[in-house]
């Protein structure tokens, strides 16, 4: 928990600094900003690592709370399994979203992103 907490501090404050302090700050964050960020493997891995560490850290913390306060062994086992399954599912889905993100998916010819997506295809 301590190790993942330290890593999370670096990942989260790096994320906040880049998103909120650089290049126009919070006013620059829009769909194009996210699409540009996820075009770079560095930022994909940064966000995926932040997601993995946050979910594992949070699920482990919740597991500790369940182990401390739930006295019935059967209920405790069900809750710990539910936490593990929820964390695993969110890690898988979040990872898929980050690595399969396509800003041009579903863009129509009359849409604002059409010209940008056509330039990317060429």
TrEMBL record:
Entry's Gene3D superfamilies?
Fumarate reductase/succinate dehydrogenase, transmembrane subunit (1.20.1300.10)
Q: Do you know which Pfam families this protein is assigned to?
A: Sdh_cyt
- Signal sequence region: none
Q: Does the keyword NADP apply?
A: no
Coiled coil segments of this chain: none
Q: Which residues cross the membrane?
A: 44-66, 78-101
> Is-annotated flag, keyword Transmembrane?
yes
Report the locations given in the UniProt record. Membrane
Where does it mainly reside? membrane
Q: Which SUPFAM superfamilies does the annotation name?
A: Fumarate reductase respiratory complex transmembrane subunits
Keywords from the UniProt entry:
Heme, Iron, Membrane, Metal-binding, Transmembrane, Transmembrane helix
* Protein's UniProt name: Succinate dehydrogenase, hydrophobic membrane anchor protein
Q: Which organism is it from?
A: Microbacterium soli
């Amino acid at each position: 928990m301590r190790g993942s907490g330290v890593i999370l501090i670096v990942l989260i404050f790096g994320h906040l600094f880049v998103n909120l302090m650089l290049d126009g700050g919070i006013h620059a964050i829009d769909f194009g900003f996210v699409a540009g960020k996820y075009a770079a493997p560095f930022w994909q891995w940064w966000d995926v690592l932040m997601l993995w560490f946050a979910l594992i850290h949070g699920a482990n913390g919740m597991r500790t709370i369940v182990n401390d306060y739930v006295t019935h062994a059967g209920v405790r086992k069900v809750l710990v399994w539910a936490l593990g399954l929820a964390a695993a599912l969110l890690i898988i889905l979040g990872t898929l979203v980050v690595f399969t993100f396509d800003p041009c998916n579903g863009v129509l010819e009359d849409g604002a992103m059409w010209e940008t997506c056509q330039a990317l295809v060429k």
